[in-house]
Design goal:
six-stranded mixed β-sheet; 31% helix; Rossmann fold; 9 strands; 7 helices; 230 residues; three-stranded antiparallel β-sheet; alpha/beta
């Protein structure tokens, strides 16, 4: 039987930075494929290019060479306006720093990505409410970020990333600013909610504890992904 086509295909991705000291090769040929429901984690030392890779896949940065295919769309070939629309509709981001708007309530922060939609989906506020209920924040729905703990703010960030039902969920050090107990609960929540939403979850982290919980693990070494099975 033939394998199902990948929903995400990254092929031959390279990234070079040129400065006064010369050229630095950060990514030297990254290949990766994922399907809906997959959860993949990438580890590696600081400066290895983990976040750079994540931002290129999320079309927040450009590679030097290579191709990305997301469910038949080639986002690197889109115009800037089309790329912005692609990011909003197909990609959700969970950052180490949650980037919540302090003047907005929890519910309003979750709904922010929907403001860019030409015609917001019907029932979008109900979806936001259900996501917040799923992550245990119904009693915080009218609070502002300054009234929340770090773990609560990160849970809001997860809901915001999922509000437009993205095909791809990208998490950049999602537990990096949290204590161990909170980090464990956020890691569990991220994996569970991504699976429930049937989205692809791609996470980069320094945390070996978080990485060990993912079914597919890679290390970024010498600019390439090396799969880890231990």
């Amino acid at each position: 039987m033939s394998e199902e086509p990948a929903d995400l295909c990254v092929a031959g991705l390279t990234k070079q930075f040129t400065g006064a000291a010369g050229t630095l090769d950060v990514l030297t040929g990254v290949d990766l494929s994922m399907q809906r429901g997959d959860a993949v984690v990438i580890t590696g030392p600081s400066g290895s290019g983990k976040s750079t890779l994540l931002y290129i896949i999320g079309v927040l940065d450009e590679p030097t060479a290579g191709e990305i295919n997301v469910d038949g769309t080639l986002p690197l070939k889109l115009s800037p306006v089309e790329q912005a629309q692609f990011r909003n509709e197909s990609v959700g981001f969970v950052f180490q720093d949650h980037h919540l708007l302090p003047q907005c309530t929890v519910l309003e922060n979750v709904l922010i990505p929907t403001l860019a939609n030409a015609k917001p989906a019907s029932g979008i506020e109900d979806r936001a409410t259900k996501l917040l209920e799923r992550v245990g924040l119904m009693d915080r729905i009218t609070h502002r970020p300054g009234q929340l703990s770090g773990g609560e703010r990160q849970r809001v960030g997860i809901c915001r990333a999922l509000i437009n039902e993205p095909l791809l969920l990208l998490a950049d050090e999602p537990t990096g600013n949290l204590d161990q107990k909170t980090a464990e609960s956020i890691g569990t929540l991220l994996l569970e909610v991504a699976a429930e939403q049937n989205t692809m979850l791609l996470c980069v982290t320094h945390s070996l504890d978080l990485a060990a919980r993912f079914p597919r693990r890679y290390e970024l070494t010498d600019g390439k992904l090396v799969q880890r099975t231990e």
